[in-house]
Amino acid sequence: MHNKSILTKDIITFPTNRKFDMTLLGRVAIDFNPVDYFQTLAESTTFKKYVGGSPANTAVGLSRLGKNVGFISAVSKDRFGEYVTKYFENEGIDTSHIMTCQHGEKLGLTFTEILSKDESSILMYRNQIADLALEPSVVDEEYIQNSKSLLISGTALAQSPSRDAVLKAVSLAKKNHTPIIFDIDYRSYNWTNTDEIAVYYSLVAREADIIMGSREEFDLTEKLLGLDSNDKTSADYWFKQNAKIIVIKHGKEGSTAYLSNGEDYSIKPFPIDALKSFGGGDGYAAGFLNGVLNGWDIIECLEMGSAEAAILVASHGCSDFMPHESEVRTFIKDEKAKYGDMVARV
Amino acid sequence: MHNKSILTKDIITFPTNRKFDMTLLGRVAIDFNPVDYFQTLAESTTFKKYVGGSPANTAVGLSRLGKNVGFISAVSKDRFGEYVTKYFENEGIDTSHIMTCQHGEKLGLTFTEILSKDESSILMYRNQIADLALEPSVVDEEYIQNSKSLLISGTALAQSPSRDAVLKAVSLAKKNHTPIIFDIDYRSYNWTNTDEIAVYYSLVAREADIIMGSREEFDLTEKLLGLDSNDKTSADYWFKQNAKIIVIKHGKEGSTAYLSNGEDYSIKPFPIDALKSFGGGDGYAAGFLNGVLNGWDIIECLEMGSAEAAILVASHGCSDFMPHESEVRTFIKDEKAKYGDMVARV
Amino acid sequence: MHNKSILTKDIITFPTNRKFDMTLLGRVAIDFNPVDYFQTLAESTTFKKYVGGSPANTAVGLSRLGKNVGFISAVSKDRFGEYVTKYFENEGIDTSHIMTCQHGEKLGLTFTEILSKDESSILMYRNQIADLALEPSVVDEEYIQNSKSLLISGTALAQSPSRDAVLKAVSLAKKNHTPIIFDIDYRSYNWTNTDEIAVYYSLVAREADIIMGSREEFDLTEKLLGLDSNDKTSADYWFKQNAKIIVIKHGKEGSTAYLSNGEDYSIKPFPIDALKSFGGGDGYAAGFLNGVLNGWDIIECLEMGSAEAAILVASHGCSDFMPHESEVRTFIKDEKAKYGDMVARV
Amino acid sequence: MHNKSILTKDIITFPTNRKFDMTLLGRVAIDFNPVDYFQTLAESTTFKKYVGGSPANTAVGLSRLGKNVGFISAVSKDRFGEYVTKYFENEGIDTSHIMTCQHGEKLGLTFTEILSKDESSILMYRNQIADLALEPSVVDEEYIQNSKSLLISGTALAQSPSRDAVLKAVSLAKKNHTPIIFDIDYRSYNWTNTDEIAVYYSLVAREADIIMGSREEFDLTEKLLGLDSNDKTSADYWFKQNAKIIVIKHGKEGSTAYLSNGEDYSIKPFPIDALKSFGGGDGYAAGFLNGVLNGWDIIECLEMGSAEAAILVASHGCSDFMPHESEVRTFIKDEKAKYGDMVARV
């Protein structure tokens, strides 16, 4: 455990006087989670529908934590496109830059199989998918200028034209001094080979101020760089590019935030009765990034992230269960009362 | 009303000593029907999963009526493909000719919007769809030789290679004297223009012994033939090709079976409290075709078809609600007790 | 040798009072034939450009023999599309139903490798090809009504939408009593499997009044029919459908025309110093079909076909070298003077 | 005119002890140039075949000037693929990293229309093109390590997977301290929108040590950067990234090399009787880059580039007419004798 700590605003600052605290670029999709789980997806008969997709969940999380959120994506021209757009509007997320596809592209669907608390998997519908049809023309400079930060979800890099839209957004963010957060969010579905992954992940990572991912995701990103799959090496490499904060996650062993001043801080998961093994990352991102946008103490950012992750993996869905700040604080307080102040700290 | 009637076995006969009473070629898919209906699909939150797809429903219906049923189709290599295959096996339908796709094709999904008893619509996922990836090589002559009849669902004609597989099946059916039933089953989704529809529908219709469809479906089929959109004209035209029975449906006004001996017989819908405006056609096909395979009196065939249609539109799903023969007979008896013997007859 | 012979007009008749003697449906392309041949295509340095494509060559041949010719096809929106269209106009072929592609499709190119008199092969450019982009809407009924006969080139069946256009044309030809000539013209390039070939070839063959092809092409057509790869069996099968004349070619061993009255007549190749091993079939088709359109004695039709074939294989290109009638007659006379009256007869 | 000049080796240096002086990544194609020119391509009848494609021409040029040249590309599995590979081998260009496509991709073809000395245009065959099918796996680190410099032809960025292969090569070049030359070489054919062009051009330009292009090509590259379409602004911007030399071409008005030390040097075209309006750029690149690799005086590099450009536009083809050093020097000497020493200098 560190005796010391540091305010994140001493590590990274964001422009002021911009409308959106963060604009996220990436997919919004629909999750169908079984009500009658703990059996295979073939056997489950009844499903609840939720707005899903990693950056969409994080956007909802940030909005519920009080942030003003923009979103760049593409949706289908049907009731499902209507559903996610209205859901965003109800959550106070700006939908002015959500394009409606015109050529029969469909919103992604994720059917969740919850076999047990530890085993879950997903069946994805991502053929001729709306989100990867995002046109670069949707990314306009004014929107980037109006955003204090830009989050890129790595899945949006899987195919053109969405890939081109991401790279355009990164270019405009650099030009307009908008800090970039790269949430690697690897999904194998739409990629063709690991060289392709390494090329595009590293292009964005090189420009990013904050990079978040698992060890495996950093390995994919660094494949062509000759690094050694070590967290410290990774952090040092990216600090030499543009990064200020590198967050590397190790599942149940917790995660570590490396700072460009050479320090690093870790957090452990809160003990919790998990229902499913996913959704935690999106909650973590919302909790952690909200803190960083606020310039909070790094430990507080990590604790909020870890708490949101815990709340999410215990829930039946993702977006709908993103907590408000008071709920996170109550959760942390209850956990500390039960398990001690250091429950999540290292 | 006719005072006379006629046995269908005097109009059309089927080969004997073959393993399957009918083999159906066409899609099997999954229906997701909202539990909280009477609102838009965007608003519904909970969905029940059913095996769907018109020929799949009809296959289940026929199997429950005691027929030995074969099926030719292609499914996805995932839990959903596993689901529909196991469902068929449980229903006693032969799955030896259901191919598993290897290139990421997905099973079709149909999300149902039930706005009111009269207004329902569907949202289909049919991009890079498994059923239209059916390879001609799956259609083998021995399977056709083992079938007393072959049902072609028109949707399977929408794209190659499934289209090629259908035409191969038709060719082999002609060679092996297997009567062909053409259930037009028009779905606009995968077609590109009406000439294409007319070309392929008419190719199969020309060889069919029984053709079933709505007036609109016959019009699509006959677009290049210079007919006059009149039921009698249609029937006479197809009798000059290979047809023995032509069934033309007019929704709530009922339907008529034209026979190659010049007679025609009509049926009306049973009065019923409908829940949704679809699924009826698949029940009708099962009830009617079961009767024809049995050589029953034409009026009895029609009444069984109409009764199954009524049972289906009053149900939450399709396949799961296909009745056994005793249930259909009970339904008819109850309706007649309530509304009189002529309730569905013309 | 037959002592007897028969007029083809006693076997097949054509409608009168129609503008075009024949409308051909199929590809028009460009041949690049090396000037410095007898080496590999990699080594040849200089090429002559000719209008090519089997039905295009036959169309030019028929036009030069005095026939009024229509053509249905699709060409590229570039100088090459302009080239072939102008060439047709100069040859007096109607170009009103040659569609110009709008999505970057290119005219097919055929680079010929002439290694020796007996060994030649071709390298084809047929990716995103103009001719297979032919839309069914280009095939209009009035054009078919204005044609005394319709020739379908089998290559046009290789892919949709061209395939759909062919089947529409066949349907309209039947309706308007326009005799159909099916020139099988197998090219492996754009097909995916032999079931597909068999399905679509047999669909057209079944409706055709005249079918022309090699033994191998008939085998491809008959794959699903259970025949025995015997010429007489083939002819008898197709006579039971709609055929009046079946021409089966055996390369250097000659060819035989089977007639629906049970007779058959054969012809041998004229002895000639060949330059290349292709183009002969297109000349044969022009010579033979011109005779049949004129109702000539069957032996005369075959002799004219064989003579044109000989002239073509001795030429550097195809279309440009299609002879006028007087040239063919001079060729035959010269050959007979040199080799005797029975030079090509059996 | 400058009184001073500077050695390019004082501006940019290359690693020593590497096998290849330069490895070029980009297309190799075939040019078909009319022998009977000064008319439209529709009218020309005879064509000479040449190896073509901008980087292929430059590679031949460099090899003839004595450089050891590597090449990364993909070719068709046919006689044309064989042709260009053998041609390279005869020219002494390494072909170990030229992949052979396996899915029917074809080598690009360029048909040249030479209407007059000033008007020429091209008709390209680039559907399902071999060069853009280049797989990233072909780009191996050892090859980049063995190269003193890497030239990227911008056309290779037009589509994935070739685009991915370029970006991988750039990444490996940075890692291995291999200077990058970016020859923008804009061809509209395979691009979909100008954002896409700007994104990928600027990604490579940002890493390049030398960038060569026309004003229009720099404008395309800089579209998202907010520059002002001024040569000096462009040069200064790229010097702030990684560039050492920026060459901007203005056609008949000549071209200017901007150096990272703030100096700039210009050259004019040699007066010449041009035959066609293209090919000059590839000759220019060969002549100029050969000089830079040798560390020559910048004025000498430019003069050699301009001389090669002049020789090329006066020739019937490109690759075949790339001169040896003595020929270039003779050409310059002759021009100076005729027009004065300052004929091309500014």
Automatic annotation (TrEMBL), chains A, B, C, D:
GO molecular function: 5-dehydro-2-deoxygluconokinase activity; ATP binding
Chemical reaction(s) catalysed: 5-dehydro-2-deoxy-D-gluconate + ATP = 6-phospho-5-dehydro-2-deoxy-D-gluconate + ADP + H(+)
EC number in record: 2.7.1.92
GO biological process: inositol catabolic process
CDD domains for this protein: KdgK (cd01166)
Domain Carbohydrate kinase PfkB, chain residue ranges per copy: 24-323
Keyword Plastid assigned: no
Family designation: Belongs to the carbohydrate kinase PfkB family.
Name of this chain's protein: 5-dehydro-2-deoxygluconokinase
